[in-house]
Amino acid sequence: xxxxxxxxxxxxxxxxxxxxxxxxxxAFVGGAAxxxxxxxxxxxxxxxxxxxxxxYVDVFQGTPLLMQLFLAYFGAAALGFDVSAWTAASLALTLxxxxxxxxxxxxxxxxxxxxxxxxxxxxxxxxxxxxRHVILPQALRLAVPPTxxxxxxxxxxTALASVIGxxxxxxxxxxxxxxxxxxxxxxxxxxxxxxxxCYPLSRYARYLEKRLYGAGIR
Amino acid sequence: xxxxSVKDLHKSFGDLEVLKGIDLDIEPGEVVAVIxxxxxxxxxxxxxxxxxxxxxxxxxxxxxQRLDGSAMSPGELSQNVGMVFQSFNLFPHKTVVExxxxxxxxxxxxxxxxxxxxAEEVLDKVGMLEKVDAYPAQxxxxxxxxxxxxxxxxxxxxxxLCDEVTSALDPELVGEVLLVLESLAAEGMTxxxxxxxxxxxxxxxxxxxxxxxxxxxxxxxPQTLFTQPKTPELSQFIASVL
Lengths: 218, 242
Hints:
The complex is a heterodimer.
Chain A: H1 6-43, H2 47-62, H3 65-78, H4 85-111, H5 114-122, H6 127-157, H7 169-180, H8 183-214
Helix pairs in contact in A: 1-2, 1-4, 1-6, 1-7, 1-8, 2-4, 3-4, 4-6, 5-6, 6-8, 7-8
Chain B: E1 4-13, E2 16-26, E3 31-35, H1 42-49, E4 57-62, E5 65-66, H2 74-78, E6 81-84, H3 96-106, H4 112-125, H5 141-153, E7 159-163, H6 171-186, E8 190-194, H7 198-204, E9 207-212, E10 215-220, H8 222-227, H9 232-241
Parallel strand pairs in B: 3-8, 3-9, 6-7, 7-8
Antiparallel strand pairs in B: 1-2, 1-4, 4-5, 9-10
Helix pairs in contact in B: 3-4, 3-5, 4-5, 5-6
């Protein structure tokens, strides 16, 4: 059998790590876009839409991400759609992320005191004008720390895409281990890879949170 | 012709009837102080006047125009009826001048330069011109409330509603806000104030309205009302607050 040097392992993990980063970005950007639309729709007045969005959020929060990936991959195949692991993973992670961000952001919008709504209403601003000029700028500031914090969950969530054959950091680790039989080294390196991606974000979220409360916005 | 004319106003929250038929006519330039115990319906009455609460029955006219129901859009309403809150409710992410300019620019579509001029005028009126670029968090409560008054005035309303505007202030800051209201009254602004400042009600208002259990129990000019209350409820109330 071939001998793997440590560098071989690291190099292969780094190459696969790119796809972890790309998948995380797709999930986060796509999830944020969908999540924003859902948040705005949910804050609007139309009851059936609010109810549907709540159901959507509950379903994605109440089921394991792994099942969502299976459904997106095998479920789509069973329905006759030919989806690649890429498409399935991107889709499932985007939906998963959007559901959580929608809920986080709804909380941030609701955390803006009701007096702000009343003041803008009394000044004659309509719903959209109040949202745009008064509520969202304040909600946005509240939203940054938990959003950055949640991005860490998205990165770690991409590891599950390995089970549908998507070759990212975790899958690459498994494949390397099958060839090199050095589980401790390899999976320690895989874990280190996630840590290097996640730790700066966690720190940044903590810093933002401190700065927010330090500024005395609430 | 009354500027504000309220007829048979009723409002319930669930089973609780808060307003049980209010009739009130207010002349242009009149300063009306609404007093009464908490729970007597005075704040709800005020909030019905600018439709922050929808009443269940009755009508509100402003000059000749119907104001209630959906007769006026929020935009139109804001140019007729201004409001100042107990908790100021300034926009914390905007500077003083941006707070004041927002509604003229967004609602009235006033060009920014002109809105800035209006903002400076009204801020000068409340003595806050030197703080145009400060953020609300950098101001004292009294200063914030004066900015809130300027913000309402920037829409050039015909009536200004004041909902316990000094109740959240430290005692030493109450005076500066009352002084601003007094100068507005002297200029002929129509004011409807829900207040716990009996001295202010007595000295500045033209008429005092005593609300009790959702009705106007007694009303009249402040001197008579405070010195010769007709009903035991009002004498009791006066005794408890003075």
